[in-house]
């Protein structure tokens, strides 16, 4: 108790800040690995660490020597095993608002027009039970994916999107990439998800939509060829059986630029202008 009392008495402000930063880092790391292979691997590593310390305490020297060497070599193995998760973490940092601007700024009639064209195309494809996969690029660039397909660089329109996915046409069997209000490419190849716990009735389009959402911050729209059901994939999650009203609201929320928080200078300028009667 005396040592704890001394610890609290000697605690400085910088120590509290240090602890909060480490706690926040661990929390963000937990969010990144939650419900992934890394979560189970992390549990295994923690168990191995506990067994190593336990063998040291009860003086099982041979077991301790083996586990200690395994932990030393395991650092290199961790970098290899956690490569996808490390990539996700670095991409997450790179996508933060500190480094990037809003991916798009479409307002008023332009916003309504783009959303209407996409929703109209998806609704038509759904009624006709024509399979479709549309990927909306956001902050993370998808140039590598665009290069796998045929470049179009045309303005978003329902007629264009419908014609692309008509069966037996050259581009119908790939993904369409949309950036802002432009169709960048069609017939693109996407990486498939590595999630092994998905339902067996999900086809290649749904798995491809999940795959690209795991590797970027894109939003993917999927129309099922068998049922005509509309689905959305984002951040490794899939929402199925959406109606056009819900789809429209999702797209409006995605396209609408977020209002940046006012800085101290902005607040001061507003107060100054109000005081001067401007």
From TrEMBL:
Its EC number is 2.7.7.85. InterPro entries: C-di-AMP_synthase, CdaA, CdaA_N, DisA, DNA_integrity_DisA_N_sf, DNA_integrity_scan_DisA_N. Residues 83-244 form the DAC domain. One of its GO terms (biological process) is cAMP biosynthetic process. The chain crosses the membrane at residues 16-33, 70-86. It is an enzyme of class 2 (transferase). GO terms for molecular function: adenylate cyclase activity; ATP binding; diadenylate cyclase activity. The keyword Membrane applies. It catalyses: 2 ATP = 3',3'-c-di-AMP + 2 diphosphate. Gene3D superfamilies: DNA integrity scanning protein, DisA, N-terminal domain (3.40.1700.10). Keywords: ATP-binding, Cell membrane, Membrane, Nucleotide-binding, Nucleotidyltransferase, Transferase, Transmembrane, Transmembrane helix. Probably a homodimer. NCBIfam families: diadenylate cyclase CdaA. Belongs to the adenylate cyclase family. DacA/CdaA subfamily. Catalyzes the condensation of 2 ATP molecules into cyclic di-AMP (c-di-AMP), a second messenger used to regulate differing processes in different bacteria. This is Diadenylate cyclase. It comes from [Clostridium] ultunense Esp. The lineage of its organism: Bacteria, Bacillati, Bacillota, Tissierellia, Tissierellales.
